[in-house]
Amino acid sequence: MAIMVNRAVLAHRLFTGISRHHLARLVEELAASWQAGLEGRRHAARGGARKRAAGAGARHQLVFVDRLVATLIHLRHDLPHSVLGLLFGVDRSTVTRAIGEIRALLASRGCAVTDRPGLRLHTLADVFAYAQAEGINLRLDATEVQVRRPPAGRGGRRAFVSGKKKQNTMKATVIADDQGRTLWTDALRPGRMHDATAARNEGIAACFQHFPTVEVLLDDGYLGLRRDHPGQAITPPRKPNKIAFPHVHAAREQARHEHSSKRITVEHALADHKRWKQLTRWMHRRDRLPDTYRAIAGLVSDRNITS
């Protein structure tokens, strides 16, 4: 049974999670890259150069705008591919292929910044360079996404068991600014890895060395970074000795409260990410989660750019 759904309704913010103006900007930004990638894949499959004229051949069952809308709905609400195929009047495999193409394009965009609409940050070094140039103090934190348990007997199975969540998870490190705007997220790591270790694996030590004026606010999980990079990795003050005077304890609690008030913006950024259902619990292949997280982080960061 065919279901005819108004495509304008499917493009509504309630389905896609973004405004129509934002959707139009995405279409303008990504359409050429998608077409170029499509032609490249076709040439590789044929094993030679194009023989037909541009535009010749069978037409797509899903045009680019529909592919983008279907991918956004999948990211926002985690609807199954078969349901999306029914809504758009195509086969499930067509939706699966479309989502794989568009998700990769969204993941490669990086994160936007407010004062430079044409600039997008892709690497940790980009973020530190931007922070040093603009005099911004960064906020860094990690979050975990529950994933499916690896099959029994597979090597590295215990690496995904989080000691904190008591679940199988993957861990993402996120950097935000003082207004809670997402600036960067890393390649996700198995949940058993410590937060500080994940940051070190992304090269944060080299960034501290090359950008000595940048400060990063952290929580108590990054005490090792504060020890290695004093003055740049800022964590809450440690608990004083039990026999310390009462005013010492009071000053410490006040300092911790002020630090938490400044660092809370990165928690707000993480909450923005978790509003997309696919990041509340990931039920698909684990190797697809990094691209999904980067795609959502880039979409959330687009709000940094004034419309």
Automatic annotation (TrEMBL):
Q: DDE Tnp4 domain: from which residue to which, for each copy?
A: 140-299
Protein name in UniProt:
Transposase
Q: Coiled coil: which residue ranges? A: none
- Print the keywords alphabetically: Metal-binding
The record's Pfam families line, in alphabetical order, gives:
DDE_Tnp_4, HTH_Tnp_4
Q: Which organism is it from?
A: Streptomyces diastaticus subsp. diastaticus
Cofactors named for this entry: a divalent metal cation
Task: Give all residue intervals belonging to the Transposase Helix-turn-helix domain.
Answer: 61-111
